[in-house]
């Protein structure tokens, strides 16, 4: 073995154990996908020279060149619409919508074309496009920068909607999304971009459409995704002091929904709470509650509850903490799950 | 204030502008036109093919309208009157190029070689797109207007990135030029120098809304300058002019010269669809004036005056068109099989567990109903 090879292996080993932020893990997933598959392209607003407003694409244009990583004009419908045409011609575009609410101009291209072309053409056209969307609040952003837009996408047949909760899973899910032949809406929880984790980054592990149990427990199933998973885990620790053994499930895939993992857990615990930042009315949690009630009704000790944002437009920074689900509010919901007859 | 340094820029800007009057190779009376500008008259073989395919396309269009009246098609948006655009543009494409049509461009699709019954699948209601887009390099028909412009730019840019000799032609109407996607597509195409040709069939009305309520621009082709895209204004009822404009634009795109915006002035003789009443928004006299500028009669008069086409050949062509129509009638009168399981088959590349469950439930429901 040459000295160079040894140095490379050492670097890899160092990388494997060094703590990594979610933003850095996403950056590495993009770099590794670009390196592994010459069909992969990365484009959007400010993703080139600047490296993205959250630096997720930092250094990629310099490393892979302007033909593969490039800035576009400031037009979201244009980004998605041209990504569709590129995918029709054999490329694998990974595009960025700069913020959740800035993706709305692309809604028609996403719902009428990206989601439907495979179906419209009886499977002749496949669109392996990944749309990265930084989403959610908790970062003190001013209006239009903190929306939770997952329900719009999850309601659209033909799209996969996924969201990671940890750096290692951000790497895995993004690699899996880029390899996936279906269009994927990849929601990145902004408030966790700078969360660190010491982990080996690998695409192996739970599949793109699988939920994972982040903490095993026997009394109640706490269901969360994206930025709320960490809050759910904190809640579980606090609940342990009250002698509630909380199981925390990270959905990862909002569409399709992993019924098997969720139903198994809820039938076993008999109680469940769903948490999300988005407004509760017609929100994603309503679907979760409906599905689990249909499939677990006779196992339930209490109605499944939701802890969500209020049914209001996202608040200004100084008021957002009142809107977002937190440990206390989730504990209150757990306490309301009719424990009386357990004692 | 304009400085000396700005003069090349101003010259560039002027070079992007269309001609003040529409370019034309053959005038409505069938004579060589004095307004040809940069357009080159196609060779005889191409002129004859333009004529033949317009006659066949017109007969197809009439047959589709009749099938709609008989209830065989859910709806049919006729392109009668726009035959010069439909046929001229498509015949100018090379085999490897792509066509991005709208719902009014079924004649263009058939001219490209798509089987007529596959082309009518959407309008018969059997499925959404009845043909394999890759077999013909024809995208599915675009119903939400202007959305196809961006797909064409993306496909063309991908060809350039992959160093494939391939251009895209996207069809749109005057109404679609008001959509945001058209603006974004022209802008992206200009910035990327994408090998794409935008052909605006300006037929004067977006369903009922006349052009004057659509735009304050002097012409739609004049918009090209705002995107750094060279533009052409042509007589869309002159198939030779359409062919020449699209052909030279494709050649330029293939040579790395970037996009072109072409506005073709034409007219839709029929109503928007069979469900529309055009008398509510336009005069019969206006329609008559455009019938007098019929694209087929014009080219036929030219070819006969030049001795390139005989009465006998015109009659033979009419017979060929009748045979085409009869074949379509026969095939369209057969009830097509529609498979309920297809509803779930292509939503994702592999059906999800939930879709497999719903499929089984529907098939079981159908089986129960049949007993």
Per-chain topology:
The complex is a heterodimer of chains A (343) and B (371).
Chain A: H1 3-17, E1 19-21, H2 22-36, E2 40-44, H3 60-64, E3 69-71, H4 76-88, E4 92-96, H5 107-114, H6 117-120, E5 130-135, H7 150-154, E6 160-162, H8 167-179, E7 184-189, E8 196-198, E9 212-215, E10 220-224, H9 228-241, E11 246-250, E12 253-255, H10 259-269, E13 272-279, H11 284-296, E14 305-309, H12 320-323, H13 327-335
Parallel strand pairs in A: 2-3, 2-4, 4-5, 5-7, 6-7, 10-11, 10-13, 13-14
Antiparallel strand pairs in A: 1-8, 6-12, 9-11
Helix pairs in contact in A: 2-8, 4-5, 9-13, 10-11
Chain B: H1 7-16, H2 44-69, H3 83-91, E1 98-100, H4 106-111, H5 116-119, H6 121-124, H7 133-136, H8 147-161, E2 168-173, H9 180-192, E3 196-202, E4 205-206, E5 209-210, E6 231-235, H10 239-254, E7 260-265, H11 284-291, H12 295-305, H13 311-333, H14 342-345, H15 353-370
Parallel strand pairs in B: 1-2, 2-3, 3-7, 6-7
Antiparallel strand pairs in B: 4-5
Helix pairs in contact in B: 2-3, 2-12, 2-13, 3-10, 8-9
Summarize the structure in words.
The complex is a heterodimer of chains A (343) and B (371). Chain A is α/β, with parallel strands linked by helices and 343 residues long. Helices cover 38% and strands 19% of the residues of chain A. Chain A has two domains: 3-198, Thiamin diphosphate (ThDP)-binding fold, Pyr/PP domains (Rossmann fold), CATH 3.40.50; 212-342, 3-Layer(aba) Sandwich (Rossmann fold). Chain A is built from 13 helices and 14 strands. Chain A has a seven-stranded mixed beta sheet with strand order 3-2-4-5-7-6-12, sandwiched between helices. The longest helix of chain A has 15 residues, at 3-17. The model of chain A is unreliable at 1-14 (pLDDT under 50). In chain B, strands 1-2-3-7-6 form a five-stranded parallel beta sheet, sandwiched between helices. A two-stranded antiparallel ribbon of chain B has the order 4-5. Chain B has two domains: 10-338, Rossmann fold (3-Layer(aba) Sandwich); 339-371. Chain B is of the alpha/beta class. The chains are: A alpha/beta (343), B alpha/beta (371). The A-B interface holds A 41, 67, 72-73, 75, 77-78, 80-91, 105, 108-109, 112-113, 116-126, 157-158, 160, 181-182, 209, 256-257, 259-260 and B 127-129, 132-134, 139-140, 144, 147, 149-159, 161-162, 164, 166, 168, 180-181, 184-185, 187-188, 191, 342, 345-349, 352-354.
